[in-house]
Amino acid sequence: MKKPRLIVFDVNETLLDLSAMKSAINTAAGEPGAFENWFRTLLQFAMAESLSGPYRDFGEIGKHTLEMTFQNLGKDLHREEADQLLGHISALPPHPEVPAALKKLKESGYRMVTLTNGGLRTHKQQMQHARLEEYFDVFYSVEAVKKFKPHPETYNYVLQSEGYKPSETMLVAAHAWDILGAQRAGCKTGFLKREGKVLYPGGIYPDMVTETLDALVYQLTT
Amino acid sequence: MKKPRLIVFDVNETLLDLSAMKSAINTAAGEPGAFENWFRTLLQFAMAESLSGPYRDFGEIGKHTLEMTFQNLGKDLHREEADQLLGHISALPPHPEVPAALKKLKESGYRMVTLTNGGLRTHKQQMQHARLEEYFDVFYSVEAVKKFKPHPETYNYVLQSEGYKPSETMLVAAHAWDILGAQRAGCKTGFLKREGKVLYPGGIYPDMVTETLDALVYQLTT
Questions:
Q1: Which of B53, B72, B144, B112 minimizes the C-alpha distance to A182?
Q2: What percentage of chain A exceeds 70 in pLDDT?
């Protein structure tokens, strides 16, 4: 593979570790699968919103779907508790190998940006809290195009803003649907097989598949 | 509410009972949440496919996502077993109250059609097996427009084919994202609050919400 010049990173689960948020939601719901159900429902409704009509902020869809998850379990969810649980999203730690891997990638001369389904303000808080700000040239949120990933406009927005061709660009993500969208926009892809994540057999096999970011960075820098 | 003239029914879970398929998949996977995970992943990838690019048959996405579900559990899924598990979809029973409720609705003069994300051939097998054929004027599948619900083209396809205005039409479904899409296409909506189904707080409250079809039909016929 000819190496890319621009690396676009997905954020939640890809760079940031949602374990603490997962425990908090599962404990509050009294159900070990609550976080997983919520996160899938959140993604489902983000896609449903972008398929069917106007844009709505990811945080708002997050709140609506958390309410659904609790309702489904027959549990009350008070506004303060919802805000407290969802507040975790701004204060997530990076996965342990991420800072050193990003540093190495940056030092080897790649242009590095993010692209998240989350709102830009929350995303900037995330990067600041996780102390990852210095490694990125630009932070991008889909709110600029008012469509969620994997809509092609979201990837095209980054490609056009950055002035790189799809073939010069690699999306790195832990979500198979994000990989599928980037492939369809013509980008190279790197799949991080984080715990519980599997590839979609309907997509092309990604250019790189590793379990952690440092293994992927090793391939990009040697 | 002014009563609608055309009733459009979603099929899987709304009219047909997936319990037997659920048990079969959970037993084969050795995991009580396997069916639920699969069905959510199936809907997620159907939406991701329609957001990001070309159309793929629902049955094919069903097979790919069942493979993902098993892989995630560290279980092998042989082709024959996948075919056998997915074959349940053509031979589902109706929910117990459905035949009598549809009969009553038909007798009161409503025009009744279906609209499913499934392929038309499979859908016709489903209706024949469940002995529900006689109650419907037309069976519609989204494969005609090559987009999955809740894309507006899917609802518009039925409205244009039938020649009814959105305000004369009610979609009946057990899925909140389907209700959201129909609302955005301007239709009236009836939500069947089947077991485990909850409304999306981001949508408008539906015109009718009942736990079973006969309760909804009662409101439409009195």
A1: B53
A2: 100
